From TrEMBL:
Name this protein carries in UniProt: Phosphoribosylglycinamide formyltransferase
Species for this entry: Cellulomonas edaphi
Name of encoding gene: purN
Pfam families cross-referenced by the UniProt entry: Formyl_trans_N (PF00551)
Catalytic reaction equation(s): N(1)-(5-phospho-beta-D-ribosyl)glycinamide + (6R)-10-formyltetrahydrofolate = N(2)-formyl-N(1)-(5-phospho-beta-D-ribosyl)glycinamide + (6S)-5,6,7,8-tetrahydrofolate + H(+)
Formyl transferase N-terminal domain location: 3-182
Amino acids binding N(1)-(5-phospho-beta-D-ribosyl)glycinamide: G12, S13, N14
Pathway(s) this gene product operates in, as recorded in its UniProt entry: Purine metabolism; IMP biosynthesis via de novo pathway; N(2)-formyl-N(1)-(5-phospho-D-ribosyl)glycinamide from N(1)-(5-phospho-D-ribosyl)glycinamide (10-formyl THF route): step 1/1
Protein family: Belongs to the GART family.
InterPro entries: Formyl_transf_N (IPR002376), Formyl_transf_N_sf (IPR036477), GART (IPR004607)
Gene Ontology MF terms in the entry: phosphoribosylglycinamide formyltransferase activity
Key words, A-Z: Purine biosynthesis, Transferase
């Protein structure tokens, strides 16, 4: 099975969705490690409950961002990943990290990129007033949520939505999309040419 390393910063519901299927022989991938940028988060509890090894690499423990990025790279490399999945990881990974896992890092984002990149995709879409938002799974290429798009799904914005209600509905769709895309990548492979990414 393809070796998956999942990077997390928070609740870990996308991680949970991957863990729910990674034992299925037909899925083709197994979560072999979870790496967080902070201790004490639910995502780490989820990983530990599933018996998956974890590591924490916190920016504050390093002299600068470059040193943190190198430590993060090493912490992930230890697990020899075939694919690295950023699932609610709220920091940008650096060039050394991406060079170590070329075209092997994907990210899930709660908006229809290239609209509303960054840390507040749901809030920004709501304040813009869009009537449809959604989620995107992309290949990470060093820009802020700017890499080639692998898959997207739309979610209507309802008149009474606030940020939590819309984010919750997006996350239901997002979990399904992420599991689908990750499974297809580990089973069929991923090629990236410029702005275009293709599975299989
Ligand atoms: C997800 O909606 C993910 O798309 C978002 O954080 C949430 C994490 O949920 N990520 C970003 O906004 C990255 N720019 P989870 O911790 O329950 O998986």
């Amino acid at each position: 099975a393809g070796r998956l390393v999942v990077l997390v910063s928070g609740t870990g519901s996308n991680l949970e969705a991957l863990l729910a299927v990674h034992g299925d022989p037909g899925f083709g991938g197994r979560v072999v490690g979870v790496v967080a940028d902070r201790p004490g988060i639910r995502a780490l509890d989820i990983a530990q409950a599933a018996g998956v090894p974890t590591a924490v690499v916190a920016l504050g423990d390093f002299a600068d961002r470059a040193a943190w990025d190198l430590a993060l790279t090493e912490a992930v490399a230890v697990f020899s990943p075939d694919l690295v999945v950023l699932a609610g990881f709220m920091k940008l990974v650096g060039r050394p990290f991406l060079d170590r896992f070329p075209d092997r890092v994907v990210n899930t984002h709660p908006a229809l990129l290239p609209a509303f990149p960054g840390a507040h995709g749901v809030r920004d879409a709501l304040s813009y007033g869009v009537k449809v938002s959604g989620c995107s799974v992309i290949v990470v290429d060093g820009g802020v949520d700017a890499g080639p798009i692998l898959a997207q799904d739309a979610v209507p914005v309802l008149p009474d939505d606030d940020e939590p209600s819309l984010h919750e509905r997006i996350k239901v769709v997002e979990r399904r999309l992420l599991v689908d895309v990750v499974g297809r990548i580990v089973r069929e492979g991923l090629t990236v040419e410029g702005r275009h990414a293709r599975i299989g």
